[in-house]
């Protein structure tokens, strides 16, 4: 092999191996603006009926609609601001028998306001003395899926006291 061929071969090998990038791909960041696309609610509680002194266990299911809710996660400081609202259409049932329906308007700043922190797969919202934690189920460059069991112990709707709840939110950029 002549010297020119060896030089071309060496240059090819160096070029091929020098282009590798050992850095891991950048993780998607939560900072920025997100728009709510879907919201689901499941829960349980009790209903008080005037004819019965004993509260009756009920199931609760909610489906969101009329989405006009936007979250903005700021990086430094880690604050979250929220605008808009959506509706939860909630159905109450006892032993599989529908008891009633209700529309619950949800205001963005009632849920998502104050500061935020991401700890592993948890997203923690703090507003004064109130803390609201959600699991980050999915975070990509353009989608954010959150779920969790917030504390709704003090909420009463249509004579129903919520004792357990599970919510899911799906946001897009």
Q: What are its keywords?
A:
mainly beta
Describe, in plain words, how this protein is organized in 3D.
This protein has helices at residues 3-18, 108-111; strands at 32-47, 56-73, 79-94, 97-107, 114-119, 122-127, 130-139, 143-148, 156-157, 160-172. It is mainly beta and 173 residues long. It has an 8-stranded antiparallel beta barrel with strand order 1-2-3-5-6-7-8-10. The chain is elongated. The protein starts with a helix and ends with a strand.
Brief account:
12% of the residues lie in helices and 60% in strands. It has helices at residues 3-18, 108-111; strands spanning 32-47, 56-73, 79-94, 97-107, 114-119, 122-127, 130-139, 143-148, 156-157, 160-172.
As a percent range, the share of strand residues is over 45%
Strand order of the largest sheet: 1-2-3-5-6-7-8-10
Overall helicity: 10-25%
By DSSP (H or I, 4+ residues per run), the number of helices equals: 2
Give a short account of the largest sheet: 8 strands, antiparallel, barrel
What is the radius of gyration? Answer: 25 Å
Overall body shape = elongated
Quaternary status = single chain
Global mean pLDDT: 85
Through-space gap between termini: 58 Å
Determine the structural class based on helices, strands and strand pairing: mainly beta
Low-confidence stretches: none
| Strands, total number | 10
